Amino acid sequence: MYSDLLHALPDVFAWTNFAAVVIGVIAGIVVGAMPGLSATMAISVLVPFTFGLEPLVALGLMAGIYNGAMYGGAIPAVLLRIPGTPAAVATTFDGYPMAQKGEGGFALQVAVVSSAFGGIASAFALMLLAPPLSKVTLLFGPSEVFWVAVFGLASIIFLLGGNPVKGLISACFGVFVSVIGSDPIYGNDRFTFGQLEMLDGINIVILLVGLYALPPVIDLLETPLKTDGVSSSKLGTQSLWKALPRMKSFWKTWLRGSFLGIWIGILPGAGGSMAAFMSYNEARRTSKHPEKWGEGEPEGVAAAEVANNADTASALIPALTLGIPGTAVAAVMLGGLLVHGLQPGPMLFRDNPDIVFGFMWQFLFGAILLVLLGGSLATNSFARLLNLPRPLLGSVIIVLMLIGVYSIHGRMFDVYLMLGFGAIGWVMDRLKFPLPPVVLGLILGGFAEENLRLALRIGRGDPMILFQNTTSLILVALTIAVVVGPTLKKRYIDSRKKA
Amino acid sequence: MLNFFKKTAIASAMCLTAGAALAEYPEKPIEVIVGYSAGGGTDVMARTAAPFIEKYLGDGASLVVKNMPGASGQIGVTEAANADPDGYTLGTFNLPGMMARTVDRKADYDKESFTYLANVVNDPNVIVTAKNTGLDTLDKLLEEAKANPGAVTVAMSSLGGDDHFALIKLENATDTEFTIVPFKGSAPARTALLGGHVAMGILNISEVAEFQDQLNVLGVATKERSEFAPDLPTFQEQGLDLVNGSMRGFIAPAGLPEDVQAKLIDAFSQLSSDQEFLDAMAATANPVEVVTGEEFKQLTADLHELAKGVWETTPWN
Questions:
Q1: Partner-chain residue, chosen from B40, B159, B188, that has the shortest CB–CB distance to A186
Q2: Do B69 and A345 make contact, defined as CB atoms within 8 angstroms?
């Protein structure tokens, strides 16, 4: 089964495919470095433009952007204490204090090497785990897939942190959107208002572009430019080769962070920001001098950055094998695969091995390229990016959004739909409703409904079909743990406080 | 008076342009609307056939495939039905789906909306069972279905499609009853069969040709054995009169000028004897069966009758 992996390698090195990864990584770092612009947004704006490209060129771009953006978020996190992406929040804890001490250059080098380490580990996890898992996926019938979807929804609502009630409301909005269109079994119209364009339901890319791209662009145009960050002359950069020996004590943190990131990536629902927080906390807990953390401890930057890149490729494991994307980015990438006629699931590995394994290699090379591209350029050029005129940037993104969404089906209706979702997303953002549950609600809500109904038909109406095998029961137990776990933990901590 | 002049002027202008169009058809690119996204079975058929139609139309004719996916092909076929009948807009057509949609919902077209050019592909249905069921012959399957009505679950790609009609025909012919499990497309249905989550499946031969060792293929719903799997018996060989399949072809809007229609039908009818075309279709697992003009129209009418009959006795929604 791994011989296909080697067979796919030559294609990856075709110059167009390789150039796609290089361009993707650079674009990803740029996008990640812009506060507010995320990997999800960049990839969803990009997807419609990749329709005409060869599959590996399109996928290489996406793999590169994903890897690049997860590191790029560290640049403003270190220099301005503004996380470029949500996953870079934990990077600010020690990265910014380092920059203030004149070690900003070193902080960015730690970030780029750690990001690359995490990305490489994640790519290997995808290569080694996905093929055998794709064989196991035949065990997942409608009732099991239903429970995976329920588990994914539960984890995004309860594990995202913040307010589970707001998370639940966001998820419900997403599930509602999933109901629009013809119903999956009988084909009855639901909430389509007689519009033929709505019969197929709401395209995930349209929702993503609206929700993830419009609110940040509005923010970008609203907030005046601040340049009170550390200027690049004060970074205190030294050559990467001199910096590397100072990082050799991080290997334990790197391994732990990679493991956490990979595991969290595989679970549907959770994503990079949770991986970064958990890795940071674990590394601090086991550190010999935890009191120095938060005051410019390079290992803190390493812990956060390794974990937020380690979930990139592993998040695709459930997406490629089961066809169930666990994160918004995985959902967009899955959309990119579908555009090229690649149906996720066990057949993908059988029918298109060169493309699916080539995609995995592209993840690996994307991560390695981070060191070369990010390391040499980050210290100078990317820091200057933050000074780009924001109105220019904002208007370019809006134009790309409009063209991209129009080109999906070639109709204005979709553009209006996207703007409508953008308005809803902006209001939700202002009211501090989390947006990821909306996207997961749309994706997983559809899966849950369809598979629940299929399962009940197979069981001829008897709901016990949902509890009839071990896989289902394990998933039910996991779901209960995710829902009840945080409450129990809080009670336990409260009772200890009282005692 | 002025109005009269206007009308005459417009009418004569129209005659002139129509005359010009007839004389030199095709004098500009012909658009072929495909109601599915690029890469699907219907799209592959259209793109494979296009260069051959160009060749047979001659005079540097050019066909441009335009994808208008959505609503199981309805958006595209509605667009084609409402286009100007000048021969410069053609569309792909799927049976029995396009006729079933006129029965199970309000469609903006009916069987009179089209000029029928040619059906090109006929992908016959097959009945398969999951390996873990032990139902490895048609007799065993029918025995089980008779002994426990409704106990056999049947995976298929949707309700109101060719697989659904094949099952109805089977039920009527053998006086049996099954439980339908309509997946979203044939790929997930096949995966569920491979995993043994459903007992039986009705698919198309192009979808199971490569899976013969992982599924029990009980028979093919054709009159003669299919070239794709010559070792698989037909149902008629096994004493069951079941012939059904998924058909894909080309239509134009109703009211096409007669000579344009004749020229197009002539071009399409030459496909069946073009070995290069047949090879290209075989490479994409598309069994070719060209039926043109009146015959195609009759085929559509028959399937419309079938869909209407089924809908009246056992509506699927």
A1: B159
A2: no
Question: Number of folded domains in chain A?
Answer: 1
Distance from CA of B6 to the nearest CA of A (A): 35
The residue segments making up the domain with residue A462 are 3-498
Q: Residue A41 carries which side chain, given as an amino acid letter?
A: M
Q: A266-322 pLDDT, tens per residue?
A: 877 666 777 888 888 888 888 888 888 888 888 999 999 999 889 888 888 888 888
pLDDT bin (cut points 50, 70, 90) of residue B15 is very low
Given the DSSP bridges, would you call strands B89-95 and B114-130 parallel, antiparallel or unpaired? unpaired
Residue A154 has pLDDT above 70, yes or no: yes
Interface of B with A in 66-85 (CB under 8 A): 68-72, 74-75, 78
* Domains of chain B and CATH, by start: 28-122+246-313 (3.40.190.150), 125-244 (3.40.190.10)
C-alpha span between A45 and B249 (Å, rounded): 35
By C-alpha distance, the chain A residue nearest B100 is A187
How confident is the model over A94-135, as pLDDT tens digits?
Answer: 988 888 888 888 888 888 899 999 999 999 999 998 888 877
* Residue A177: how many other CB atoms lie within 10 Å: 22
Asked if B213 has any chain A CB less than 8 Å from its own CB, the reply is: no
Angstroms from B72 CA to nearest CA on chain A: 8
Whether the CB-CB separation of A300 and A280 falls below 8 Å is answered with yes
Asked whether the beta carbons of residue B74 and residue A199 sit closer than 8 angstroms, the reply is yes
Alpha helices in A137-163 (DSSP H): 142-159
Q: Which CA distances in Å does A319 have to A382, A421, B66, B75?
A: 32, 25, 30, 29
What residue of B is the nearest CA neighbor of A192? Answer: B71
Task: Supply the pLDDT for residue A269.
Answer: 67
Confidence class of residue A231 from pLDDT cuts 50, 70 and 90?
low
For A190, the 3-state DSSP assignment is: strand
Of the candidates B37, B71, B158, the beta carbon closest to that of A199 is on B71
Flag whether residue B183 sits within 8 Å of chain A, measured between CB atoms.
yes
The dihedrals phi and psi of B316, each to the nearest 5 degrees, come to -100, 5
Output the 3-class SS for chain B: CHHHHHHHHHHHHHHHHHHHHHHHCCCCCEEEEECCCCCCHHHHHHHHHHHHHHHHHCCCCCEEEEECCCHHHHHHHHHHHHCCCCCCEEEEEEECHHHHHHHHCCCCCCHHHEEEEEEEEEEEEEEEEEHHHCCCCHHHHHHHHHHCCCCCEEEECCCCCHHHHHHHHHHHHHCCCCEEEECCCHHHHHHHHHCCCCCEEEEEHHHHHHHCCCEEEEEECCCCCCCCCCCCCECHHHCCCCCCEEEEEEEEECCCCHHHHHHHHHHHHHHHHCHHHHHHHHHCCCCEEEEEHHHHHHHHHHHHHHHHHHHHHCCCC
Distance (Å, whole) CA A39 – CA A48: 15
pLDDT for B1 equals: 46
Give A188's contacts in chain B (Cβ within 8 Å). Answer: 317
B/e letters for A179-197, b = 16+ CB within 10 Å, e = fewer, are ebbbebbebebeebeeebb
Which runs of E-coded beta strand occur in A147-300? 181-182, 189-190
Q: Which of A129, A3, A82, A74 is nearest to A280 (CA)?
A: A74
CA dist B195 and B131 (Å) reads: 9
Contact between B188 and A345 using a beta-carbon 8 Å cutoff: yes
Per the CB < 8 Å rule, is A141 touching B195? yes
Distances B149 to A62, A203, B146, B159, B196 between C-alpha atoms, Å: 50, 40, 6, 20, 20
Tell me which chain B residues have a C-beta less than 8 angstroms from the C-beta of A185. 159, 182, 317
d(CA B80, CA B57): 20
Chain B partners within 8 Å of A51 (Cβ): 38
